[in-house]
Design brief:
Length: 159
């Protein structure tokens, strides 16, 4: 795992605050699109060194672009294709240090170098993914993965 340092402790506290902010933002709002829109804006404000954050939602057995912050993106992604499609097929988070080394990577933004994708699961079915890209190699670590998974589990309670 990771070594407990002051930076890691501070990073964890910041993520814990982020999750409390998310809950406050979405707890009384039943609309999925509104909640995904606000949560992507919240992540965009909170996370440093990212160039895209948003959601893809499952529709008719493929991922379709949902609310996001960043440059225009790929609209549809087939299951099993790219980091997002692979995360859905495997039903697990994919943290990629260098997207150019990932087989079948879909380059929506040439500036993206690393990526993390967390599946959103409801009733044991993947209903979408949280996708975050960075212009830096190896941007996402174990702490990011853990707390982004907690972030998505929090979202799942309200979808």
């Amino acid at each position: 795992m990771f070594e407990p340092t002051a930076y890691n402790a501070s990073k964890e506290k910041n993520y814990q605050l982020l999750i409390k902010q998310l809950e406050a933002l979405i707890e009384d709002e039943p609309d999925l699109i509104a909640n995904l829109s606000n949560s992507s804006a919240l992540l965009n404000q909170f996370l440093a060194d990212i160039n895209w954050v948003g959601y893809y939602l499952m529709k008719e057995n493929e991922l379709v672009l949902g609310p996001f912050q960043g440059l225009p993106a790929c609209v549809r992604i087939a299951l099993g294709r790219g980091v997002c499609g692979t995360a859905v097929s495997e039903k697990q988070t994919k943290r990629v240090e260098d997207v150019h080394q990932f087989p079948g990577h879909i380059a929506c933004d040439a500036n993206s170098k690393s990526e993390i994708v967390v599946p959103i699961i409801k009733n044991d079915e993947v209903i979408g993914v949280l996708d975050i890209d960075s212009p830096s190699l190896d941007r996402f670590d174990e702490i990011d993965q853990h707390y982004l998974e907690v972030f998505v589990r929090t979202l799942e309670k309200y979808v």
